[in-house]
Design a protein that fits this description.
With about 350 residues, the protein is an alpha+beta fold. The protein has 13 helices and 8 strands. Helix 10 crosses helix 11. Bound molecules: coenzyme A.
Length: about 350
């Protein structure tokens, strides 16, 4: 990273990454309010009640790491909409239980996973060292923002936890009326804005041949890359050899594959291989990158490259045809072309 970006650009990239996280949480929360008239904490509680069956309010507070007062307020709203009901204990009238009712259960069955559920799932799949690295970086960021002491529950929502759907809608309309527009960190944001209804793409990291996510393997990835690289495609044999080498080369460990997955299909991929070199020859080579034709121009290519840059140690080289429009994307991200590649073909 240091060798790729001048200092100012690193700072910009940090701000862009933060802005993306904030926007993603913001958009997810608002979408839930628009489509189901529910807030994130309401869904978290409903899911917990559905999973555990009848339980007391204090147990619910404990399992969701929320305060008793917060849980009481949210349950009031869910009960008013007939998604849950309170029941008094037969033996101790002071104790109150809560359970989900038919309408609430039906709603939960139709509900897609929350942003934080997908995120936690992917976080759990990471190696321990990577989880620890993420935690320490994020805690440092929170400290740098003087937010280290702010009390917070483990729920990704942009609003106060006890806000109602009406509160959130009111906020949204207020900012519309005021006409204030938030300056965007990069042009990618504008694209995402117009795509609020496009379902979320999951980014998977593969570090070994048996580490492909369910349903995919080296053959499916080879097929995807061969088709999507067109008209700059390599042969399936060369692609498969490249992927295999990136994931298994002895003495050059550290290669990986990124897969963008949308509704069970591969819509983008990047293969990064270790060169085993350093300095004059960069440590990494970006072997293949492709996004399926129907998904291009919405930032997936950039997202793959930016994630890969963050994951590698050292510099990255790549080969791109002079007439390939992908060059523009690489240049905008910060790749430069200092040398002409020349070959003697035998
Ligand atoms: C290159 C590629 C991965 C970019 O993916 P993407 O998701 O469309 O990229 P983004 O949405 O992040 O960025 C779009 C930018 O990519 C560049 N681009 C590269 N190839 C493009 C293509 N075929 N169509 C549209 N834009 C393309 C453009 O600079 C575009 O920016 P612009 O709209 O401002 O001109 C994708 O176009 C692709 O799979 N192309 C075919 C395979 C290929 O050439 N791979 C690179 C081999 S070196």
């Amino acid at each position: 990273m240091n060798t790729l970006f001048p200092k100012q650009e690193i700072l910009d990239h940090v701000l862009v990454a933060l802005r993306r996280i904030v926007r993603s949480i913001d958009m997810h929360s608002k979408k839930l309010v628009q489509t189901h008239r529910l807030t994130i904490p309401q869904v978290v509680l409903l899911r917990e009640i559905q999973r555990r069956g009848r339980l007391s309010l204090s147990e619910l507070a404990k399992h969701t790491s929320l305060s008793n007062a917060t849980v009481t307020g949210i349950i009031d709203r869910l009960e008013a909409r007939n998604f849950v009901r309170r029941i008094r204990s037969e033996t101790d009238r002071r104790q109150v239980f809560v359970e989900i009712v038919a309408d609430g259960a039906k709603l939960m069955t139709a509900m897609p996973p929350l942003l934080q559920e997908n995120f936690i799932q992917q976080l759990q799949d990471l190696e321990k060292w990577e989880q620890a690295q993420i935690l320490s970086s994020l805690e440092r960021v929170a400290c740098l923002m003087n937010a280290g002491e702010i009390e917070a529950s483990p729920i990704l929502a942009h609003h106060v936890l006890t806000a109602s759907e009406e509160d959130i809608n009111r906020d949204k309309n207020a900012s519309k009326v005021s006409g204030k527009s938030v300056p965007e960190a990069s042009s990618l944001r504008d694209r995402n804005d117009s795509e609020k209804n496009v379902p979320d793409v999951c980014l998977r990291v593969v570090r070994s041949l048996d580490g492909f996510p369910g349903g995919f393997d080296i053959k499916t990835l080879t097929g995807f890359l061969h088709e999507s690289l067109k008209p700059y495609e390599d042969t399936p044999e060369d692609i498969e050899r490249g992927i295999r080498d990136a994931l298994t080369a002895v003495g050059r460990e550290g290669g990986f594959v990124l897969i963008s997955e949308l509704q069970g299909r591969i819509v983008g991929s990047l293969v990064m291989q270790k060169t085993g070199m350093k300095g004059y020859v960069p440590e990494n080579i970006l072997l293949f990158i492709a996004v399926s034709p129907d998904q291009r121009g919405r930032g997936l290519g950039r997202c793959l490259v930016e994630n890969a840059i963050q994951m590698v140690d050292g510099s990255i080289k790549l080969h791109v045809e002079y007439d390939n429009p992908a060059r523009r994307l690489y240049e905008r991200i910060g790749f430069t072309s200092k040398y002409a590649e020349m070959r003697y073909v035998k």
